[in-house]
Amino acid sequence: MIRSELIQKIADENPHLFQRDVERIVNTIFEEIVSALARGDRVELRGFGAFSVKKRDSRQGRNPRTGASVEVDEKHVPFFKTGKLLRDRLNGE
Fold first, then answer.
1. What are the domain boundaries of the chain?
2. Per-residue confidence (pLDDT) for residue 93, from 0 to 100
3. pLDDT tens column, 9-48
4. With bands split at pLDDT 50, 70 and 90, how would you rate the model's confidence at 59?
């Protein structure tokens, strides 16, 4: 599902809301999650999962084309851990 499909589904299920308002709500939620992660905070959505940021240390990598060693800088990457409810639903429990 992509963002526009999510917005359309929410708008269809809530006919009392205008689609532009639903779009603003969805965009605000995503922007807040991104802002929190950028600050290094953890975002937890109960029953769904938790978003956090993990630090990857610098390391020696390889250029796949030439095989030469390359220094890979440290970086921060988003990480998602599923909640128990989501995991149970995916596994049919």
1. 3-90
2. 76
3. 999 999 999 999 999 999 999 999 999 999 999 999 999 9
4. very high
Q: Record the pTM.
A: 0.78
CA dist., res. 40 & res. 7, Å (int):
27
Backbone angles phi, psi at 8, to 5 degrees: -65, -40
- Does domain 3-90 sit in CATH 3.30.70.2520? no
CB 12 within 8 A of CB 53: no
